Amino acid sequence: MFGAKLCCENGQEMPDDTSSDVLRRKIGVPPDPLALAGMTPAKALRLAVTRAAEEGASMVATLTGFEQERLSLEQVLQTLDDPALVLELSNGGALIGLAIWNIAALSAVVEQLITGRVVPRDPDRRVPTRTDAAVVCGMMDRILQRFDAEMSTADDQPPVTGFRARGVVEDARAAALMLADMDYRQYRLTIDFAEGARSGVLRLIFPWASAGSARDPAAAGDQWRREWQAAVRGSKVELRAVLYRLTLPLAELEALAPGLVLPIPQDAIDQVSLEGVDGRQVATSRLGQVNGHRALRLRMPEGDNASAAPDPAPQALAAAPQEAPEPTVPEPSGTAPPQPPVPGAGDVAQPGPPAVADAPVAGDTQVPAPVPV
Questions:
Q1: Which of 167, 171, 148 is nearest to 158 (CA)?
Q2: Which band of pLDDT confidence, cut at 50, 70 and 90, is reported for residue 221?
Q3: Residue 292 or 325, more confident
Q4: What is the mean pLDDT of residues 244-251?
Q5: How many helices (H) and strands (E) does the chain have?
Q6: Which of 211, 245, 318, 354 is within CB 3.0–4.6 Å of 159 for a Cys-Cys bond?
Q7: In this structure, what DSSP letter does residue 268 have?
Q8: Residues of 301-315 as b/e, b for ≥16 C-beta within 10 angstroms?
């Protein structure tokens, strides 16, 4: 058996106790910096992705790239333009994050879970569907659960644990209503699927705030309601004014032609229905004109009018001082002189002399008119 000895530059043989160390330094593989360091988000995610893919999809997935970045809310929203599946992440409290699967990563997981293999080709550029979300949500939660378990041993734990997928975020506008105006922590993961068949990107976005600075859920809910109201009040609403609905036999309906006159009741202009796109009546109105344009005068529903403040006319009449009636002179014909109506005894009479039949009567005795003092 042949052996070899290491010699110094002067030809002298090196001591045996140092030869093994020298060889180890020359041929040894550099140690993994992640292995030397304690548990970090990068190391935890590398283990989480690998184990979740193996357990949930029987697929080999390797984390080949990791980047961490601090982003403002505006910067987060700007990254949601490209077609991608965006999932809402919630920790059950006031903090909300996002998980963003690009088309390559999404298609790799979907193909593996549905067909059992990943075809080594570039995926078609398409808009993700809710079916994609239903397939990927299970894998997303596996990754997050594994991530939580690995991060439980970390010395410094940022507020990135306890999150789970809660639903699909349709677009950047929906994300803007959902996310608080604060800084966010983005983990950008480059993942190799099925031993090089495809490479995709998964971005995890968590609030940057420390675990102890989470906002009060009630305050967060109030802020969300204010933002939601502001967004809704600034949106456009389509209303339809329905003048009249006419029912016709099918034969007459088929005979409709330009110039044909349809009968509409005269009172229809006072009963125009204002309706939403779903056909529900919002209010009634009267058709008119303003500055040469057709216009509608809105009318409150009858139920609202009934609950409104009562008509002040009766109270005003009751509170007003009663004026003395004008003196009257009995006519020689012997008929009873006209009498003023009794205040508060019914409807107020219209101006003008009252009819004879309206004069107050007590049996057959005629009551003379009162004389003012």
A1: 148
A2: low
A3: 292
A4: 89
A5: 11, 12
A6: 211
A7: G
A8: eeeeeeeeeeeeeee
Q: Parallel, antiparallel, or unpaired: how do β-strands 361-362 and 198-207 relate? A: unpaired
Model pLDDT for residues 301-329, shown as the tens digit of each residue: 665 444 444 444 434 333 444 444 444 44
In terms of DSSP bridges, do strands 61-71 and 164-168 run parallel, antiparallel, or are they unpaired? Answer: unpaired
CA distances (Å), origin 201, targets 63, 269, 312, 330: 10, 61, 71, 107
Residue 337 has pLDDT above 70, yes or no: no
Q: What is the pLDDT of residue 343?
A: 46
**Distance in angstroms (rounded) separating the CA atoms of residues 373 and 367:** 18
Q: What local confidence, expressed as pLDDT, does residue 12 receive? A: 56
Average pLDDT, the chain: 76
How many residues are listed for the chain in this entry?
Answer: 373
Which has the closest alpha carbon to 367: 349, 326, 329, 359?
359
Side chain identity at residue 43, one-letter code: K
Residue 195 has pLDDT above 70, yes or no: yes
Element (H, E) at 273: strand 272-276
| Residue 167 vs residues 86, 131, 136, 210, 229: alpha-carbon distances, Å | 9, 12, 11, 24, 22
Given this model, what pLDDT does residue 33 score?
A: 52
Helix, strand or coil, per DSSP, at residue 179: coil
Three-state SS at 76: helix
Tokens representing 322? 């009663």
Q: What is the mean pLDDT of residues 348-358?
A: 43
Q: State how far the Cα of 147 lies from the Cα of 149, in Å rounded to an integer.
A: 5
Band of pLDDT at residue 191, cut at 50, 70 and 90: very high
Residue at 234: amino acid letter = G
In terms of DSSP H, where are the helices of 84-216?
A: 103-115, 130-151, 172-178
Q: From CA 123, how far away is CA 85, in angstroms rounded?
A: 14
Could you tell me the domains of the chain?
36-233 (3.40.1550.10), 239-254+263-303 (2.30.330)
Q: How far is CA 32 from the centre of its chain?
A: 45
Q: Which two tokens stand for residue 211?
A: 């675990």
Which are the contacts of 45, defined by CB distance < 8 A and separation ≥ 6? 63, 66, 143, 147, 187, 189, 204
| Token pair 């042949």 in the structure block, residue | 2
CB 92 within 8 A of CB 162: yes
